[in-house]
Amino acid sequence: MAQSDLQEKKASPSGQESSSALFPSYSRYPISLVKGQGSWVWDDQGNRYLDFMSGLAVVNLGHAPEKVKAKVKAQLDELWHVSNLFHIPQQETAARLLTQVSCADVVFFCNSGAEANEAAIKLARRYHQKVKGEQRYEIITFAQSFHGRTLATLTATGQQKVKEGFLPLPEGFVTVPLHDIPALKAAIGPNTAAVMLEMVQAEGGVHPVDPGFVQELAALCKEQGLLLIIDEVQTGMGRTGKWFAHQHYGIEPDIFTAAKGIASGIAAGAMLAKEYLREAFSPGSHASTFGGNPIAATAIIATVETMIEEQIPEHAEEMGRYLISRLQAAFKDEPFVKDIRGKGLLIGIECAGPVSDVVAEGQKQRLLFVNAGPNVVRLLPNLKVTRDEIDQAVNILAKVIAAYTAKEGK
Ligand SMILES: *Cc1c(COP(=O)(O)O)cnc(C)c1O
Description:
Elements: H1 3-10, E1 33-37, E2 40-43, E3 48-51, H2 54-57, H3 66-76, H4 89-100, E4 106-110, H5 113-131, E5 138-142, H6 151-156, E6 173-176, H7 181-187, E7 192-197, E8 200-201, E9 207-208, H8 211-224, E10 227-231, E11 255-258, E12 269-273, H9 294-309, H10 312-330, E13 337-343, E14 346-351, H11 356-364, E15 367-368, E16 370-371, E17 376-379, H12 387-408
Helix pairs in contact: 3-9, 4-9, 10-12, 11-12
The structure holds pyridoxal-5'-phosphate.
Pyridoxal-5'-phosphate (PLP) is lined by residues 112-114, 117, 146-148, 198, 202-203, 231, 233-234, 259-260.
């Protein structure tokens, strides 16, 4: 492109939606954040916010955690990227650590949650087709689930809104209602390869799955020779008060996935599995250029080591209980608040109506949080959050909801 054309494009009015060089695929809040430390972030106007969304369950150790920052900085001086055609020692260490805190034996590293789930789906199919010699391919998933935005993972997702306009969808996915064993049994056929679910449906409204249902489902998978895949992209890495949410349920999935909180905000994902699935991903069967690169793997190591040293899952469990009790006390006489639920520090407040104005008002009062579906406020503080910060957040939230219901006459 000629220099003069470049100048002309730059001269177009800025700040308006239509003039942005970005696709409008996100509806963005009118805030631009420029700095973060611990539980706090600052915008470009110098305003400070208490962050109870944590980049959507990503910065689980808070913003810019010291040990992760120091180790990544040191790694930047050594080596940024190397092909997975070479041994990458940081990746070995990261995998070893993850297997020490979970039931998994082998790990594949990628860069995001959707990719981790995509790898899980591929591993399940390949295990049946290459190791067991059975043409099984179908994955059963559940209504209101969320598994990502690639074609396969959006097809697996039990929400119509992520599928619109993207037809045709890949074959081999069936969605059944959650907590419906007869429907699940009816969906299982000779082609079924695996069942995939979240232990707490997070995007779907913060719905923890019923323990009885999980037990029955796990038993059914064993009996029918199906692989059980747990999507721990949001619930994993200490978020629910255990390293992985399935550990609350006393089950061992064949495969589970992690991403969001795994590397404190450096892009990374992982697909973790039991030993008997190792051979299904034989050399050349699956790959990722950036997956488990030295920077990302270093961030994973430092994140997991910090979590072990500081007993982060235990702290998250304790702070989760405290936050729920504070919310229950604050909203016991508030008719707009219908239910308060969650696990650890993944908490939903179901309201009697849409919460988008509540989220916006929270931002004006310098508290950041998100929704989960139209009527649920979702709180995702970092896992090192303090009682004092929880008190501050609950006070702001109580004020915001009281002002909202007064204004709306609810
Ligand atoms: C966020 C999320 C994903 C997708 O992760 P990306 O990193 O955005 O691809 C998948 N599953 C669950 C449960 C999630 O919360």
